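// run 5 | inverse folding | seed 20
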Protein backbone atom coordinates (compact mmCIF):
# COMPACT_ATOMS: atom_id res chain seq x y z
CA UNK A 1 0.00 0.00 0.00
CA UNK A 2 1.24 3.49 -0.82
CA UNK A 3 2.60 5.41 2.12
CA UNK A 4 1.87 9.04 3.09
CA UNK A 5 3.66 11.46 0.71
CA UNK A 6 5.02 8.60 -1.36
CA UNK A 7 5.34 9.47 -5.04
CA UNK A 8 4.16 7.18 -7.84
CA UNK A 9 7.81 6.50 -8.72
CA UNK A 10 8.50 5.44 -5.15
CA UNK A 11 5.35 3.34 -5.13
CA UNK A 12 6.46 1.55 -8.29
CA UNK A 13 9.94 0.96 -6.88
CA UNK A 14 8.39 -0.83 -3.93
CA UNK A 15 5.30 -2.42 -5.44
CA UNK A 16 5.82 -3.25 -9.11
CA UNK A 17 6.36 -6.85 -8.04
CA UNK A 18 3.10 -6.83 -6.09
CA UNK A 19 1.24 -5.83 -9.24
CA UNK A 20 2.89 -8.65 -11.13
CA UNK A 21 1.84 -11.07 -8.40
CA UNK A 22 -1.76 -9.82 -8.63
CA UNK A 23 -1.81 -10.32 -12.40
CA UNK A 24 -0.41 -13.83 -12.06
CA UNK A 25 -2.99 -14.71 -9.40
CA UNK A 26 -5.85 -13.36 -11.50
CA UNK A 27 -4.74 -15.59 -14.35
CA UNK A 28 -4.16 -18.63 -12.15
CA UNK A 29 -7.43 -18.35 -10.21
CA UNK A 30 -9.90 -16.91 -12.70
CA UNK A 31 -8.63 -17.33 -16.27
CA UNK A 32 -6.65 -20.51 -16.77
CA UNK A 33 -9.07 -22.84 -14.91
CA UNK A 34 -11.77 -21.75 -17.40
CA UNK A 35 -9.66 -22.18 -20.53
CA UNK A 36 -11.36 -24.71 -22.82
CA UNK A 37 -13.90 -25.37 -20.05
CA UNK A 38 -16.42 -22.57 -20.58
CA UNK A 39 -20.07 -23.54 -20.70
CA UNK A 40 -22.36 -21.76 -23.15
CA UNK A 41 -23.92 -19.64 -20.40
CA UNK A 42 -20.44 -18.39 -19.41
CA UNK A 43 -19.91 -16.72 -22.82
CA UNK A 44 -21.81 -13.62 -23.89
CA UNK A 45 -21.80 -11.41 -26.96
CA UNK A 46 -21.32 -7.68 -26.45
CA UNK A 47 -21.81 -5.54 -29.55
CA UNK A 48 -21.17 -8.03 -32.35
CA UNK A 49 -20.86 -11.79 -32.83
CA UNK A 50 -17.05 -11.61 -32.66
CA UNK A 51 -17.06 -9.28 -29.61
CA UNK A 52 -17.21 -11.72 -26.73
CA UNK A 53 -17.00 -11.59 -22.95
CA UNK A 54 -16.75 -14.54 -20.59
CA UNK A 55 -16.91 -15.26 -16.90
CA UNK A 56 -13.10 -15.36 -16.98
CA UNK A 57 -12.99 -11.72 -18.18
CA UNK A 58 -15.47 -10.56 -15.56
CA UNK A 59 -14.04 -12.42 -12.58
CA UNK A 60 -10.41 -11.60 -13.38
CA UNK A 61 -11.28 -7.92 -13.73
CA UNK A 62 -13.14 -7.91 -10.42
CA UNK A 63 -10.15 -9.52 -8.71
CA UNK A 64 -7.68 -7.04 -10.19
CA UNK A 65 -9.96 -4.08 -9.44
CA UNK A 66 -10.09 -5.00 -5.76
CA UNK A 67 -6.38 -5.71 -5.39
CA UNK A 68 -5.06 -2.75 -7.37
CA UNK A 69 -7.35 -0.19 -5.75
CA UNK A 70 -6.28 -1.44 -2.34
CA UNK A 71 -2.62 -1.42 -3.28
CA UNK A 72 -2.73 2.23 -4.34
CA UNK A 73 -5.34 4.15 -2.26
CA UNK A 74 -6.81 7.09 -4.11
CA UNK A 75 -6.38 5.39 -7.47
CA UNK A 76 -9.23 4.38 -9.75
CA UNK A 77 -9.61 1.38 -12.05
CA UNK A 78 -10.81 1.55 -15.64
CA UNK A 79 -11.52 -1.99 -16.80
CA UNK A 80 -12.89 -3.06 -20.14
CA UNK A 81 -15.86 -4.93 -18.70
CA UNK A 82 -16.74 -2.23 -16.16
CA UNK A 83 -16.73 0.37 -18.94
CA UNK A 84 -18.98 -1.84 -21.04
CA UNK A 85 -21.45 -1.84 -18.14
CA UNK A 86 -20.98 1.89 -17.41
CA UNK A 87 -19.41 3.83 -20.31
CA UNK A 88 -19.10 7.00 -18.20
CA UNK A 89 -16.46 5.31 -16.05
CA UNK A 90 -13.99 5.64 -18.93
CA UNK A 91 -13.70 9.36 -18.17
CA UNK A 92 -11.46 8.55 -15.18
CA UNK A 93 -8.58 8.21 -17.66
CA UNK A 94 -8.80 11.97 -18.17
CA UNK A 95 -8.94 12.78 -14.44
CA UNK A 96 -6.26 13.68 -11.93
CA UNK A 97 -6.17 10.46 -9.91
CA UNK A 98 -3.75 7.63 -10.75
CA UNK A 99 -5.65 5.18 -12.93
CA UNK A 100 -5.20 1.47 -13.44
CA UNK A 101 -6.18 0.45 -16.97
CA UNK A 102 -7.14 -3.22 -17.13
CA UNK A 103 -7.90 -5.66 -19.90
CA UNK A 104 -8.42 -8.96 -18.05
CA UNK A 105 -8.37 -11.14 -21.17
CA UNK A 106 -6.98 -9.43 -24.25
CA UNK A 107 -7.84 -11.80 -27.06
CA UNK A 108 -11.12 -13.15 -25.68
CA UNK A 109 -12.03 -14.72 -29.01
CA UNK A 110 -8.81 -16.73 -28.99
CA UNK A 111 -9.39 -17.65 -25.35
CA UNK A 112 -12.90 -18.92 -26.10
CA UNK A 113 -11.61 -21.06 -28.96
CA UNK A 114 -8.87 -22.60 -26.83
CA UNK A 115 -6.05 -20.81 -28.65
CA UNK A 116 -2.98 -19.69 -26.63
CA UNK A 117 -2.90 -16.16 -28.12
CA UNK A 118 -4.37 -14.13 -25.26
CA UNK A 119 -2.93 -12.15 -22.37
CA UNK A 120 -3.77 -9.98 -19.37
CA UNK A 121 -2.89 -6.28 -19.58
CA UNK A 122 -2.51 -3.77 -16.76
CA UNK A 123 -1.16 -0.23 -17.02
CA UNK A 124 -0.80 2.56 -14.47
CA UNK A 125 -1.25 6.09 -15.79
CA UNK A 126 -1.77 9.61 -14.52
CA UNK A 127 -2.64 12.82 -16.37
CA UNK A 128 -2.71 10.85 -19.62
CA UNK A 129 0.83 9.51 -19.24
CA UNK A 130 1.41 5.75 -18.97
CA UNK A 131 3.88 5.20 -16.13
CA UNK A 132 4.10 1.42 -15.91
CA UNK A 133 2.70 -1.67 -17.61
CA UNK A 134 2.37 -5.40 -17.10
CA UNK A 135 1.68 -7.90 -19.92
CA UNK A 136 1.18 -11.55 -19.03
CA UNK A 137 0.74 -14.42 -21.50
CA UNK A 138 -0.29 -17.20 -19.11
CA UNK A 139 -0.24 -20.15 -21.50
CA UNK A 140 3.47 -19.63 -22.20
CA UNK A 141 4.11 -18.07 -18.77
CA UNK A 142 5.76 -15.02 -20.36
CA UNK A 143 5.66 -11.81 -18.35
CA UNK A 144 6.67 -8.43 -19.79
CA UNK A 145 6.96 -5.26 -17.72
CA UNK A 146 7.82 -1.64 -18.45
CA UNK A 147 8.36 1.33 -16.17
CA UNK A 148 8.78 4.73 -17.75
CA UNK A 149 12.44 5.66 -17.83
CA UNK A 150 13.55 2.27 -16.49
CA UNK A 151 13.23 0.09 -19.56
CA UNK A 152 11.19 -2.88 -20.70
CA UNK A 153 11.80 -6.46 -19.64
CA UNK A 154 10.54 -9.90 -20.54
CA UNK A 155 10.96 -12.46 -17.77
CA UNK A 156 13.67 -10.26 -16.27
CA UNK A 157 15.65 -9.78 -19.51
CA UNK A 158 15.98 -6.26 -20.93
CA UNK A 159 14.17 -5.70 -24.24
CA UNK A 160 15.58 -3.68 -27.11
CA UNK A 161 13.71 -3.88 -30.40
CA UNK A 162 16.25 -2.18 -32.67
CA UNK A 163 15.63 -1.27 -36.32
CA UNK A 164 14.31 -3.76 -38.89
CA UNK A 165 16.78 -5.63 -41.05
CA UNK A 166 17.56 -3.62 -44.20
CA UNK A 167 15.96 -4.79 -47.42
CA UNK A 168 13.21 -6.86 -45.82
CA UNK A 169 9.49 -6.12 -46.12
CA UNK A 170 8.08 -4.46 -43.03
CA UNK A 171 6.00 -6.88 -40.96
CA UNK A 172 2.96 -4.95 -39.74
CA UNK A 173 0.08 -6.25 -37.63
CA UNK A 174 -3.09 -4.36 -38.53
CA UNK A 175 -6.58 -4.09 -37.10
CA UNK A 176 -8.43 -7.33 -37.78
CA UNK A 177 -11.03 -6.99 -40.59
CA UNK A 178 -13.75 -8.27 -38.25
CA UNK A 179 -13.21 -5.21 -36.05
CA UNK A 180 -13.00 -2.49 -38.72
CA UNK A 181 -15.50 -0.34 -40.55
CA UNK A 182 -15.43 0.06 -44.32
CA UNK A 183 -13.71 3.43 -43.90
CA UNK A 184 -11.04 1.93 -41.63
CA UNK A 185 -10.46 -0.88 -44.12
CA UNK A 186 -9.84 1.75 -46.81
CA UNK A 187 -7.37 3.57 -44.54
CA UNK A 188 -5.42 0.39 -43.91
CA UNK A 189 -5.29 -0.46 -47.61
CA UNK A 190 -2.51 2.16 -47.83
CA UNK A 191 -0.21 -0.45 -46.30
CA UNK A 192 -0.66 -2.78 -49.27
CA UNK A 193 2.34 -1.41 -51.07
CA UNK A 194 5.74 -2.78 -52.10
CA UNK A 195 8.07 -3.21 -49.15
CA UNK A 196 5.28 -3.74 -46.62
CA UNK A 197 3.76 -7.04 -45.48
CA UNK A 198 0.58 -6.34 -43.47
CA UNK A 199 -1.39 -9.06 -41.71
CA UNK A 200 -4.45 -9.08 -39.39
CA UNK A 201 -3.56 -8.82 -35.72
CA UNK A 202 -4.36 -11.20 -32.93
CA UNK A 203 -4.29 -10.05 -29.32
CA UNK A 204 -3.18 -6.40 -29.37
CA UNK A 205 -1.11 -6.89 -26.22
CA UNK A 206 0.83 -9.77 -27.75
CA UNK A 207 1.38 -7.81 -30.96
CA UNK A 208 2.93 -4.98 -28.94
CA UNK A 209 5.15 -7.53 -27.21
CA UNK A 210 6.20 -8.85 -30.62
CA UNK A 211 7.20 -5.30 -31.65
CA UNK A 212 9.19 -4.83 -28.43
CA UNK A 213 10.95 -8.14 -29.16
CA UNK A 214 11.69 -7.15 -32.76
CA UNK A 215 9.60 -10.06 -34.04
CA UNK A 216 7.11 -7.65 -35.63
CA UNK A 217 8.12 -4.26 -37.05
CA UNK A 218 5.00 -2.23 -36.34
CA UNK A 219 1.29 -2.21 -35.64
CA UNK A 220 -1.41 -0.22 -37.43
CA UNK A 221 -4.54 0.02 -35.32
CA UNK A 222 -7.75 1.89 -36.03
CA UNK A 223 -9.33 2.01 -32.57
CA UNK A 224 -8.21 3.73 -29.37
CA UNK A 225 -9.65 1.87 -26.35
CA UNK A 226 -6.99 2.48 -23.71
CA UNK A 227 -7.12 -1.03 -22.21
CA UNK A 228 -5.90 -2.46 -25.52
CA UNK A 229 -3.05 0.02 -26.03
CA UNK A 230 -1.80 1.61 -22.78
CA UNK A 231 0.35 -1.30 -21.63
CA UNK A 232 1.71 -2.01 -25.09
CA UNK A 233 2.70 1.48 -26.15
CA UNK A 234 4.82 1.90 -23.03
CA UNK A 235 6.38 -1.53 -23.56
CA UNK A 236 7.34 -0.53 -27.11
CA UNK A 237 8.62 2.88 -26.00
CA UNK A 238 10.80 1.45 -23.29
CA UNK A 239 12.18 -1.12 -25.75
CA UNK A 240 13.38 1.78 -27.93
CA UNK A 241 10.37 2.18 -30.21
CA UNK A 242 7.77 4.88 -30.57
CA UNK A 243 4.18 5.51 -31.66
CA UNK A 244 2.60 8.00 -34.04
CA UNK A 245 -0.87 8.77 -35.33
CA UNK A 246 -1.63 9.41 -38.97
CA UNK A 247 -1.00 13.14 -38.40
CA UNK A 248 2.45 12.42 -36.93
CA UNK A 249 1.51 13.08 -33.29
CA UNK A 250 2.11 10.60 -30.47
CA UNK A 251 -0.88 8.42 -29.60
CA UNK A 252 -2.83 9.69 -26.56
CA UNK A 253 -4.58 7.26 -24.24
CA UNK A 254 -7.05 10.06 -23.42
CA UNK A 255 -8.42 9.87 -26.96
CA UNK A 256 -9.01 12.28 -29.81
CA UNK A 257 -6.33 10.67 -31.99
CA UNK A 258 -6.10 10.93 -35.77
CA UNK A 259 -6.53 7.25 -36.57
CA UNK A 260 -5.15 4.84 -37.63
CA UNK A 261 -1.96 4.98 -35.57
CA UNK A 262 1.20 2.93 -35.42
CA UNK A 263 3.56 1.65 -32.75
CA UNK A 264 6.90 0.68 -34.26
CA UNK A 265 10.22 -0.77 -33.16
CA UNK A 266 12.12 2.39 -34.12
CA UNK A 267 11.37 6.01 -35.02
CA UNK A 268 12.16 5.66 -38.72
CA UNK A 269 9.71 2.79 -39.11
CA UNK A 270 7.03 4.71 -37.20
CA UNK A 271 7.43 7.70 -39.50
CA UNK A 272 7.25 5.51 -42.58
CA UNK A 273 4.09 3.72 -41.47
CA UNK A 274 2.42 6.95 -40.29
CA UNK A 275 3.16 8.56 -43.64
CA UNK A 276 1.60 5.64 -45.49
CA UNK A 277 -1.48 5.82 -43.28
CA UNK A 278 -1.69 9.54 -44.05
CA UNK A 279 -1.88 8.74 -47.75
CA UNK A 280 1.69 9.59 -48.69
CA UNK A 281 2.38 6.94 -51.27
CA UNK A 282 6.13 6.85 -50.76
CA UNK A 283 5.88 6.39 -46.99
CA UNK A 284 8.78 8.79 -46.43
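// decoded
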Amino acid sequence: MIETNETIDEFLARHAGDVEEAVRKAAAQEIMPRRSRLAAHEIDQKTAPHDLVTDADRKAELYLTEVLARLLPGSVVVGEEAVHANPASYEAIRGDAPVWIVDPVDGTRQFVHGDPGFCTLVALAQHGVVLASWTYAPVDDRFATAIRGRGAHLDGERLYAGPPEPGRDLRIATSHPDYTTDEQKRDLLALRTPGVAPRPCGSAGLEYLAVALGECDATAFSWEAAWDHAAGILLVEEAGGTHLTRSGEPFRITGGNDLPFTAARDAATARRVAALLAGEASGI
